[in-house]
Amino acid sequence: MREQRNLEIEAEKVKQEVQLKRLQLEAQKTAAENRSFSDNAIETICKPAFPKLPVFNESQDSIDAYLLRFERLVTSAKWCKDVWAISLASLLKGKALETYQHLSPAETKDYDEVKDVLLKCFQCTLEGYRLKFRNCKFLKNETASQFGNRLKNFVTRWISLAGCEETYEDLLDLMLTEQFISACDKSLVLFVKEHDVKTFEQVVKLADMYMEAHGSQIRGKVCESRKVHVKENHASLELESKENDARPGSRVCYVCGRSNHTAKDCFHRYGAKKKDREPELAKAAVAAKEKLIVVEGSVEGKNVNVLRDQGCTNVIVRSSLVQSWSNVLQLGE
């Protein structure tokens, strides 16, 4: 009886040892599989099947095109998105790298956050793409098709960031909003942008609120057109001439830059010698002790006092005594 009991105990020990050995083998197998998967993942990340991207050069590369190429590469290589941000950081330099370094440790791990900051840094925003589209010009050695593709890319990104559909109504709303804002002053533009409105009707409504609150009209970029007035008589021409002469900076020579004469009277214009370029100054004086010759006369039937001067070459009449300059001109002729 005792021997049978010992045999049962011995058999139970052997059974437990076999079970323990089986568990150890299963654990080793699982660890080996995990190690193999980790090695394959590291090899996939560190050794992609695509060529390595060149470092971003802000003077030659466009940040949005560079990021698009980077995303296509890592997507095709099936990289884990958790390593996109750190992989992109190794390709940055200059202004882009400085912007990346200003991010917090948590933000540097988020690729979408890094991408958004870089796009804003290089003005790849709604307003930035709008300005790029409006100010786009041919680059050196650029073909017409390449220039057209750049224009198309700018306007497509502008429309996309504006959040509008590619329909006639939405595009019309976008154009109206842009034109309206471009005609307003800076204070109103700032007021509209602070409220982040999306439609043209909302922009107009905010502008009305702004005008009502400030109690004034919109002070926009007014285009002052030049008006040509036809004078009816000689007196109005004389008045206009006096107003122009009184305007500051109106009598400036465009040849030598001086303000005591105009270009038509400039000595530099005719190649005069240096000593002849200075205008001659003349002085005149009236002896107060001598009695001036004053006689009686008439102007258009009105009795006046006339100062006789034998050296005078022009006749000067008080303007209040002349009703119509046309008569005077006819008499002078």
Characterization of the model:
This is CCHC-type domain-containing protein. It comes from Petrolisthes cinctipes (Flat porcelain crab). Pfam families: SCAN (PF02023). It contains 13 helices and two strands. By secondary structure, the protein is mainly alpha-helical. Among the domains are: 1-31; 63-124, no CATH class. It has a two-stranded antiparallel ribbon. β1 (294-299) and β2 form a beta hairpin. α4 (95-101) packs across α6 (111-121) and α7 (126-134) runs antiparallel to α8 (144-162). The longest helix has 45 residues, at 2-46. The chain starts with a helix and ends with a helix.
Beta fraction of the residues? under 5%
Number of strands: 2
Strand order of the largest sheet: 1-2
Q: Would you tell me the overall average pLDDT?
A: 74
N/C terminus separation: 163 Å
How many whole angstroms does the radius of gyration measure? 44 Å
Which percent range fits the helix content?
40-55%
List segments where confidence is low: pLDDT < 50 over at least 5 consecutive residues.
Answer: 45-51, 223-242, 329-333
Query: Total helix count?
Result: 13
Global structural class: mainly alpha
User: So what's the overall shape?
Assistant: rod-shaped
SSE ordering:
HHHHHHHHHHHHEEH
Query: How would a textbook summarize the main sheet?
Result: 2 strands, antiparallel
Domain CCHC-type: 253-266
Keywords: Coiled coil, Metal-binding, Zinc, Zinc-finger
GO molecular function, one term: zinc ion binding
Domain SCAN box: 130-208
